[in-house]
């Protein structure tokens, strides 16, 4: 059974710079690490997965035309291999609105990550 990870801010996916990610979208070139507080050390609660497939938002171009569209359409769903992500103190799913939530046309949505890539 596939396991999915929602990723906002595709350009910073596992520390990959935008140009490198645009040039190499092969799933086998990347791994997903969840539950990582400080990526400069192994803390013992990280979970690492190989990537099976990427599903990019259809309007994502992976380019920056101006500083205004730096975050535009910058998200993906990633299918990872393995038995699945174990939710615990360090790893939790994102919160999504209920199915009956009404979105207003034209409203901008911003999703923010948390933490530091240590770059």
From TrEMBL:
<dbReference type="GO" id="GO:0004252">
    <property type="term" value="F:serine-type endopeptidase activity"/>
</dbReference>
<feature type="domain" description="Peptidase S1">
    <location>
        <begin position="28"/>
        <end position="117"/>
    </location>
</feature>
<dbReference type="InterPro" id="IPR043504">
    <property type="entry name" value="Peptidase_S1_PA_chymotrypsin"/>
</dbReference>
<dbReference type="Pfam" id="PF00089">
    <property type="entry name" value="Trypsin"/>
</dbReference>
<protein>
    <recommendedName>
        <fullName>Peptidase S1 domain-containing protein</fullName>
    </recommendedName>
</protein>
<dbReference type="InterPro" id="IPR001254">
    <property type="entry name" value="Trypsin_dom"/>
</dbReference>
<dbReference type="InterPro" id="IPR009003">
    <property type="entry name" value="Peptidase_S1_PA"/>
</dbReference>
<dbReference type="GO" id="GO:0006508">
    <property type="term" value="P:proteolysis"/>
</dbReference>
């Amino acid at each position: 059974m596939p396991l999915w990870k929602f990723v906002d801010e595709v350009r910073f996916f596992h520390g990959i710079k935008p140009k490198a990610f645009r040039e190499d979208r092969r799933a086998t070139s990347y791994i997903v690490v969840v539950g990582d507080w400080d990526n400069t050390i192994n803390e013992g609660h990280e979970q690492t997965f190989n990537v099976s497939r990427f599903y990019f938002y259809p309007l994502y171009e992976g380019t920056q035309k101006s500083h205004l569209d730096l975050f535009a359409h910058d998200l993906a769903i990633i299918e990872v291999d393995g038995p699945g992500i174990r939710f615990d103190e360090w790893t939790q799913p994102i919160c999504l609105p209920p199915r009956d939530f009404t979105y207003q046309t034209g409203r901008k949505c911003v999703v923010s990550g948390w933490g530091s890539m240590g770059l």
